[in-house]
Amino acid sequence: MVTGASQGIGQVIATRMAEEGAKVVLVARSKANLEETAKQIADKGGTCLILPTDITAESAVSQMVGDTLSAYGTIDILVNNSGVAGEMGPLEEISMDGWEDCFRVNVTGMFLCCKHVVPIMKESRAGRIVNISSITGKRPLVHRSPYAASKMAVLGLTRTLAFEVGEYGITVNTVCPGATEGPRIRKVIANEAQALGISLKDAEKNFTGPLNTLVEPEDTANMCIYLCSEEAAHMTGQDINVTGGLCWY
Ligand SMILES: NC(=O)c1ccc[n+]([C@@H]2O[C@H](COP(=O)([O-])OP(=O)(O)OC[C@H]3O[C@@H](n4cnc5c(N)ncnc54)[C@H](O)[C@@H]3O)[C@@H](O)[C@H]2O)c1
Predict the structure, then answer these.
(1) Which residue is closest in CA terms to ligand 1's atom 38?
(2) Inside any domain, residue 248
(3) How do residues 133-165 score in pLDDT, each as one tens digit?
(4) Quick check: is 168 catalytic?
(5) CATH number for 85
(6) Distance between alpha carbon 160 and the CA centroid of its chain, in Å?
(7) 146 CB less than 6 Å from ligand 1?
(8) Fewer CB atoms near the end CB (10 Å): N or C, the chain?
(9) Is residue 8 lining ligand 1, measured as CB closer than 6 Å?
(10) Comparing 15-24, 153-162, 186-195, which segment has the lowest mean pLDDT?
(11) What's the domain range around 193?
(12) Which residue has the least CA distance to atom 39 on ligand 1?
């Protein structure tokens, strides 16, 4: 089950999972966008199920899990990738709604997906949960306080859940992608340039590390594949940076 599978990083995670032989449940808000991911998977001979779901609504998440069980019988892997950028601006100008909307998707939605999937994994005494945070869960990003706080919350959720479910053979890890090539990051870089009064080129340098390059969605997808593989059986509660070396803690 991959949330936020309709575009961007989640779309690549879903297609990579299908390539590895998983039957993939594609979750996001828009059915039309999920159909594009489903087409990519079908073109490669993979199997998937589209479940348009707003992960901030507990009844919808419960229904999504029920529909998955009806179709596939169990859930082995949950990748919590859905996320929103949140309201941007100096903290004192962030609205209450902007703050709460960001937490509702990035933290509460993730909590709800874990809450409804964990009992199934406990019953199987196996499972892999991968939560997508961000380099901004590790280091500050000016004028993005709701996003930064929500992404750091993901680390607390991951570490605590890892201890709660470890005895059932379930691992829970976080992946922290760096600035990932695509339209979304281009907007972030433009905002950063404007907020700091610097050129786009200089703003981009704030998002690249020693490799001097943005991250590709495939980099994050490959880390998810690894964390769900047998090779990562003894890794849990970790937060792993996929940032081109920009973050090392
Ligand atoms: N793009 C980057 O540079 C970058 C960097 C670090 C971390 N991340 C994180 O990676 C994840 C994916 O990022 P992206 O850039 O591909 O995002 P994106 O904006 O391209 O896609 C976000 C996905 O989340 C889904 N989503 C949003 N709200 C939802 C809701 N209420 N219910 C269900 N689904 C919902 C959308 O439908 C969409 O499929 C996010 O968690 C993001 O914070 C992205």
Answers:
(1) 4
(2) no
(3) 999 999 998 899 999 999 999 999 999 999 999
(4) no
(5) 3.40.50.720
(6) 18
(7) no
(8) C
(9) yes
(10) 186-195
(11) 181-214
(12) 4
